[in-house]
Design goal:
The complex is a heterodimer of chains A (111) and B (593). With 111 residues, chain A is of the alpha+beta class. Chain A is built from two helices and two strands. Chain A has one domain. The longest helix of chain A has 46 residues, at 58-103. In chain B, the strands form two sheets. A nine-stranded mixed sheet of chain B has the order 3-4-6-5-7-8-9-10-11, sandwiched between helices. The longest helix of chain B has 54 residues, at 92-145. Classes of the chains: A alpha+beta (111), B alpha/beta (593).
Chain lengths: 111, 593
């Protein structure tokens, strides 16, 4: 565990860090990224709905076009979030490593 | 008492239909009898409803449900990370970051589940509607089969049939029932369409940008023309723009050519480059991001080519390409860019969660371009003037537009919607591009003099269904009227001798606002107030001059209705933007001319 004191706007604040627990949090975030990536069973690239599949009304055509996009966007969105979560996990892990190095004296503290 | 209809004419033996539903031969009897009674065919209405593929829609949304499960699981696991972080690191920032990611997952899932639920509800209603259609048809078949031969009408000489009140009542009631069911199906689809207007990625994309994105320059990429720049454009065209990280922008090569042309000794080349530079500044101010997607130099024979995107095409959900009419030129794109910005703003207003890029495409040899462009030689001017009298340039421009749209697609995200909108001769160019296989989701023809040679109906576009072709033609706009064809033909014959027009003799092709053309005609009116003038001259002069001069003045006034800005204002702009973002249910349609 590292206990550091930082300065901000002329004030001091205690910073408490538990690096093994930080690594655990990063692991949990990795699991979350895996969950968001899904099981790889949705490799679909286009909607099976034909242009007139829901009739020729304006609403029918709009639904065909929108449904084609939204379903793919739902999958894309989950995967994009997985990437962001994975990046966050990596940052937490890097922070833990930096704190450990600082505590070991490899990096000078902020004071 | 009359005998029941013979089996040979009213058999209701079941057979299999393409819809997989048992169909009676009696349906053909219903169709036949309706025709003989002079009533609309109820079976055609029924077939349209029965063809609705609710099962495929439901199946498609099972994929969305799976994505919703991933989002839910991800959010659940992230929830476990938050208390661990709270203990592990006293700073609140890491917890807040993870909590924001979790909230984005939950919010995105809410949208996805809402849409999947709406799809299920719609599918349920549509399936019910189809069952009711079957039942209504069956009941009508049975009722007709029970009629006596005299009840169905006595054959008349010539094959028609005498009116039969009993039969007419059955058929009228069937039609009314089918209309009611069609209304239910439409309402279900409208409700689903509304639900699908939310983008499930919005909560994720609205998360704060990663710190890696810091350092993006807030300086304009395109300094105003004439203002010296410390880091001139094209200084490092193959690398990133100074101050901006990442790979070279998609328009790096065009910007390099533009930079060279700004130093050109050729007046036409330099003038056009200066105009394009000013346009880029204007577009950047309007859209935040401006991209020079096409750039070819002008010279003494040509106005050159340019296309500028207002908004980032590489991140756009919708890409609209706006094609101007005669007298436009790449050297002066101000009006076109204003219209592009207005269309983009309207699309954003109607669909705030989506990004739209509007490309002002000055990419064809625009007739009379020298009027608004760089100075070309006299022969080129004569040639360009004659070009305004027929659709030759639009036809050739259509080939180029189709090719450019293919390139734009490579820069845009997969799945982006592409719409081409053309005004006046630009509409003829868009039509020609569609006829040559341009990959478009929709086309909008505004103030069109014609759809171009070889395009007789909206069914003539290989990759664009007829009901994805929209026409906006103000009744007050003389260019959309037949007299424009007549005037062009007369002037062309006078100046250049007789030419071979299309089969119908119209130099710009068929009026796409005609009902027979088969496009969707938008119900919108001109945004310019109607003003008619009556000249007042003294005595006998008035008798001779007034009608003629008034006609000329009124014709001139009528031309004020024919402007791209007029077509991209008010309700017509709303309709055009609704097409661009695919909100078809919001586009008011009226019968064609």
């Amino acid at each position: 565990m590292a206990d550091d004191q930082g300065t901000a706007a002329g004030r001091t604040a205690d910073l408490t860090v538990d690096t093994p627990l930080l690594r655990r949090a990063a692991e949990i975030a990795d699991h979350a990224a895996d969950a968001l990536r899904g099981d790889g069973t949705c490799e679909v690239f286009r909607s099976p709905l034909s242009d007139a599949g829901l009739g020729h009304s304006a609403a029918g055509r709009e639904v065909v076009a929108a449904a084609g996009r939204r379903v793919l966007e739902a999958v894309d969105g989950a995967r994009a979030l997985a990437v962001r979560v994975a990046v966050a996990a990596e940052k937490i892990r890097t922070a833990a490593e930096q704190f450990e190095r600082a505590e070991a004296g490899a990096i000078r503290g902020p004071r | 008492m009359t005998a029941p209809l013979s089996r040979s004419t009213s058999s209701i033996t079941s057979s299999s239909s393409p819809n997989g539903v048992g169909r009676g031969d009696g349906l053909s009897v219903l169709r036949l009898l309706a025709g003989l009674q002079g009533l609309p065919d109820p079976v055609a209405k029924a077939d349209e409803l029965l063809a609705i593929d609710a099962d495929t829609l439901a199946g498609w949304f099972t994929i969305a449900r799976r994505a919703a499960v991933w989002l839910w699981r991800g959010a659940e696991v992230l929830a476990d990370a938050i208390p661990a972080l709270a203990v592990a690191w006293s700073s609140p920032t890491p917890q807040a970051s993870i909590a924001a990611l979790r909230e984005a997952a939950v919010a995105s899932r809410t949208v996805v589940v809402g849409q999947a639920d709406a799809a299920d509800l719609a599918c349920h209603t549509l399936t019910q509607v189809k069952a009711h259609v079957q039942a209504a048809l069956g009941a009508a078949e049975t009722a007709v089969a029970a009629l006596g031969t005299t009840d169905v009408g006595v054959p008349q000489p010539g094959g028609s049939q005498a009116p039969s009140p009993a039969l007419q009542q059955i058929l009228t009631e069937l039609t009314a029932r089918l209309d009611e069911l069609r209304g239910r199906a439409t309402a279900a689809l409208q409700s689903l369409a509304l639900s699908l207007r939310a983008d499930p990625r919005d909560p994720i994309e609205s998360l704060p940008a990663d710190s890696a994105a810091a350092g993006v320059s807030t300086e304009p990429r395109f300094p105003a023309a004439g203002v010296p720049s410390e880091a001139p454009l094209g200084a490092n065209p193959s690398g990133p723009i100074p101050g901006q990280p990442g790979p070279a922008p998609i328009d790096a090569k065009n910007l390099e050519r533009l930079q060279l042309d700004l130093q050109s000794d050729d007046d036409a080349t330099r003038e056009m480059a200066e105009g394009v530079m000013a346009s880029l500044t204007q577009a950047e101010q309007a859209g935040g991001v401006a991209q020079l997607l096409v750039y070819e130099s002008a010279d003494t024979w040509s106005q050159g080519r340019a296309a500028i995107s207002v908004g980032d095409i590489s991140a756009a959900d919708n890409v609209a390409t706006l094609v101007p009419g005669i007298t436009s030129a790449p050297a002066h794109m101000a009006d076109g860019l204003n219209d592009a910005a207005a269309l983009r703003a309207e699309a954003s207003r109607q669909s705030p969660g989506e990004s739209t890029a509007v490309v002002a495409w000055y990419g064809y040899d625009i007739p009379l371009g020298f009027k608004g462009g760089v100075s070309t030689n006299p022969l080129a001017k004569v040639d360009s003037t004659l070009d305004a009298l027929d659709d030759d340039n639009a036809g050739e421009g259509g080939v180029v537009l189709a090719r450019d749209i293919d390139r734009f697609r490579q820069w845009a995200p997969v799945g982006a919607r592409f719409t081409a909108l053309g005004f006046s001769m630009g509409s003829t160019t868009v039509s020609s591009a569609a006829a040559r296989g341009a990959r478009l989701d929709d086309a909008v023809l505004m103030g069109s003099p014609g759809a171009g040679q070889g395009v007789s109906t909206a069914d003539g576009y290989p990759h664009l269904p007829a009901d994805h072709t929209y026409v906006i033609a103000f009744d007050q706009d003389p260019v959309t009227q037949t007299r424009t064809d007549l005037a062009a033909t007369a002037t062309s014959t006078l100046l250049a001798g007789p030419r071979i027009s299309g089969a119908d003799g119209e130099p710009f092709g068929v009026d796409p606002a005609l009902a027979d053309f088969g496009a969707q005609v938008v119900d919108a009116t001109t945004n310019v107030p109607e003003v008619r003038m009556s000249l007042s001259l003294p005595g006998p002069i008035e008798v001779l001059a007034d009608p003629v001069e008034s006609a000329v003045v009124n014709q001139w006034l009528a031309l004020s209705h024919h402007s791209e800005t007029n077509y991209l204002s008010g309700r017509s702009k709303e309709a055009a933007a609704a097409v661009v973002i695919g909100h078809y249910a919001d586009v008011p349609i009226k019968p064609g001319r």
